[in-house]
Fold this sequence. Notes:
208 residues, 2 helices
Amino acid sequence: MSIFSRISMGGLTVAAAFVACTIAAAQTLEAPVDPGAPMELEPPMDPGAPTEFEAPVDPGAPTEFEAPVDPDAPMEPDAAVEPDMTAPAAPAAPQRITNPVAEFAGIDKITGRIITFDVYIDETVQFGALQVTPRICYSRPQTEEPKTDSFVEVDEITLDRKIRRIFTGWMFAESPGLNAVEHAVYDVWLKGCKQKSQVPAPDAAKTN
Length: 208
């Protein structure tokens, strides 16, 4: 046998011995493992048991942030809501004054004469061929914007002595030309409302 062959065989003998030592060392370091046994780091777990970080929860029990509610107990009333004092108050409705006397002005177009006369509410006064009857007369206090109006009925006495209604509606003292009665001979418009008049009231005139 040549030297080369001996060296090769010797190398094989050394290699085989090294492998055998390695296997023996590995067998001494690794303990036999049972495939059916649980691992040391993972204890057996019960799927229905709670974990150590989670307490068992009763579905019907209230949570720690919610107190149990008795359905038969009376409910507490809501706290009263305070009004917002910073909000602007609604404007007050304008005050109206009811007056017992309506003051009118009339013109006779033939003579050009203008006459002022007072008429009590529900009283009828004749001016020329016209009969004037106020039903209501409103005004406002002096502290407010003037607004004087009266609901008036005006009838005309015709040449054959018949009475014909020619006007029914509101007259406005601040706008006399708005609803003034215009007649062929006589015109009548509202001048104002009054609390008193120098003319006796119809009932007082009858007693006298």
